[in-house]
Structure formats: structure tokens, C-alpha cells
Amino acid sequence: MIIRFIKIFISILYIFFKKVLFFIFRTPDDKQCVILYYHSVLENEKERFISQLNYLSNKYYFVNLSSLNTLPSKKNLISITFDDGLSSILKNAIPELKKRDIPTTIFIPAARLGEYPKWEQKKQEIYYNDRILNRDELKSLSDYGIEIASHTLYHADLRNLQSDAAKNELQLSKSILEEIIGKEIISFSFPYGSYNDDLINLAFNCGYNFVYTTEQEIISLPIKKRVFGRVGVDPGDFFLEFVLKAAGAYSWLPRAIRLKRKIKKIFQLNI
């Protein structure tokens, strides 16, 4: 909890100084986008999720992931995505998004359809009671206009796989989802946020147009870019915490993590 409050404090300072610099150096065409990603929205989290949507609706213009580079006249852009394709979002999130005509993208582990997640995150099983969407549900969502995207076959950490196995995860996931929805799958996100440059290039070679990471960033547009970072959010976030995340105030974190790794490496070399 202490670390959480420290992050909030640093993020407030970060966004304050960023706004000061923007006020000094801004140009008429400047615009930015933040991509948010959720996992589940459980029944007891629904009201908080609705409050988050209401806040975003009053402050931001919602965009599809595939349109990020084609919106020259809009500012204060935000995009909502979901990883894993868990059934609670179908029950508790999608109806609220439809009410507000908010576009969204759902990243699916294609070989796990209809199953309960069995992978681990931070040494804990997650979403034990929240199954992954099935084929019919995916087709229905796609027909409505929600973008279906790939999240590998088995929710694999691609950095732990040999090149051929990683390629299989990328290609088969794409082909399975395309067969289900009858549309091209153009977007991919890395499970666990685990990737490297070789895996990004492999994803493009497997036919994806856009790749998404969990590197928190503020995306400046327009830019000819095909790799985008996203900001993890949760219905259980403090309101201030959520506001800061939506504003991109946590985009200092990747640099801080890299600096921490460099310092740790230097100390290890000197021991």
C-alpha cells in the first residue's frame, strides 16, 4: 500500500511538470492518447467501473485502437481494451460500453475459449471463477463491432519459448480467431507484458498490423507507429489513481524501472 501511495505522489508531480512544459511549448496541433487495459469487471466492481466510464466520458474522446493514426482533429483521446476475454466483462462491462457507444478491443488467448484461466500471475492463480469467452460470444461481440484481437494461444510468456513455439502461438491464435469471427485479426498484445524486440518483429512477420505492450506511455499523435504501450487499470483503483492513469501520469514508471535495473546491475558488477 505504501508503494501505491508513493506512485500516486510521484505521478502527481510528473503530470504537473508535464502540463507546465506543455503550456510553455505546446503547438496548435498537439494531441495525445492513452490506452487503458482492464482484465475482469466482477459483479461487486460494476458500480465503480460505471463511475470510471462516466468520468472518462466527460473528459475524453474514445477511439478504436486501429484509428489512432487517423484522427488529426481530435484531442484528449483514450482507448479502452481488455486482456484475456473474461466472461465478467461480457456481463458487467460490455452493456455499459454499448450504452455509451464506446469502442473497445478484447485480446483473446485463442486455445482457451470457454475455459477457466489456469495460468499464474505473481505466483497466484487469477480469475478462478471467471471463465474465458466462448466461440459464440466472440462472434456475437465481433458482429456488434467490438474488435477481437490476439493474446497468443495459451496465454504464453513468449520470452520463455523457442522461436518456433512462439511463432506457433502467434500464427495459430490469429488463424483460429479469424475463422471464428470471419474477419482479419490485426492486433496483438503480449501476455504478462513480456516481450523483446525479436518478438515484436515476429508478431509483425506473422501478419499483425499493431502490437501492444504494458509499457505505460502517453502516445503523441499523429505518428507512424505500430507498437503502443498501455496503462493497466482496475475498477478497484482509487479515483485519484484512476484519474492519473487515464491522464498518462504513470508513464514515468517504465523509465524508473529501467533505471532501477541499471543501478542493480552496476552494484552486482561491483560486488
List keywords for this structure.
TIM Barrel; 8 helices; alpha/beta; globular; three-stranded parallel beta sheet; 271 residues; 42% helix; 12 strands
Question: Can you characterise this structure?
Answer:
The longest helix is centred in the N-terminal third of the chain and has 24 residues, at 2-25. It is built from 8 helices and 12 strands. The strands form 3 sheets. Strands 1, 2, 3, 4, 7, 10 and 12 form a 7-stranded mixed β-sheet that branches. Strands 8-9-11 form a 3-stranded parallel β-sheet, with helices on one face. Helix content is 42%, strand content 17%. It has a single domain, classed as TIM Barrel. Helix 1 (2-25) packs parallel to helix 7 (239-246) and helix 2 (46-59) runs parallel beside helix 3. A hairpin with a 2-residue loop joins strand 5 (120-121) and strand 6 (124-125). The chain is globular and about 50 Å long. It is of the alpha/beta class.
Q: Report the sheet-strand fraction.
A: 15-25%
CATH class type: Alpha Beta
Estimated radius of gyration: 19 Å
Overall pLDDT level: 88
Q: How far apart, in Å, are the first and last alpha carbons?
A: 32 Å
How many individual helices? 8
C-alpha geometry: globular
Summarize the structure.
The chain has 271 residues and is of the alpha/beta class. The chain is built from eight helices and twelve strands.
Layout of SSEs?
Elements: H1 2-25, E1 31-38, H2 46-59, E2 61-62, E3 77-83, H3 87-99, E4 104-108, E5 120-121, E6 124-125, H4 135-144, E7 147-150, H5 163-181, E8 187-189, H6 197-205, E9 210-213, E10 219-221, E11 227-229, E12 231-232, H7 239-246, H8 253-270
Parallel strand pairs: 1-3, 1-12, 2-3, 3-4, 4-7, 8-9, 9-11
Antiparallel strand pairs: 1-10, 5-6
Helix pairs in contact: 1-7, 2-3
